Amino acid sequence: MLVSHEREKLINAIIYFAKNTRFLGKTKLCKLLYFLDFEHFKETGRSVTGMAYYAWKMGPVPVDLYEELDMPEADLAERVEFAEKPTRNGTMLVVTPVAEFDDSHFSKREMRLMRALSEEFRDSRADDIIEATHLENRPWQKIYVEDGKRQQQIPYDLALRRQEAELMRDVIAERQAFVAQFRQP
Fewer Cβ within 10 Å of end Cβ, the chain: N or C? Predict the structure, then answer.
């Protein structure tokens, strides 16, 4: 199996979140990776893992990974253990690292984002993080609720819309200030 740089980042991001958050199951993992990818895209124009996310009822889901977690590829299975654990609401897939995290695959920005996400959601349960992905003006909300495109891919560029609008307002304000200085007697 050919292992890409993005695949190494994905596996190590899973290890990082497993080591630095509590209650990490399939749902919470998918949401943390979504936030990592979309926040990084908003800042740089590219995702960290390269995964595609789809608008499912419970929020954004990287379908390829979601399906793989039932039967992980060898490179993932060697470094992360996935086990079913009974809960009061049924069973939960628990994610446990069996390998050390390798930060050599990540930029300083990517590490900063992973640290911030793990701190923000360290003690959150799946339901809490699902709520965070359903907030207004978020990409999932736009696709699933506003556009009614259930099960459809969430375009990364939706992460940019608010930022682009803010940037445009700043550019316009700077231009107006520049022009105003020449109008003064």
Answer: C
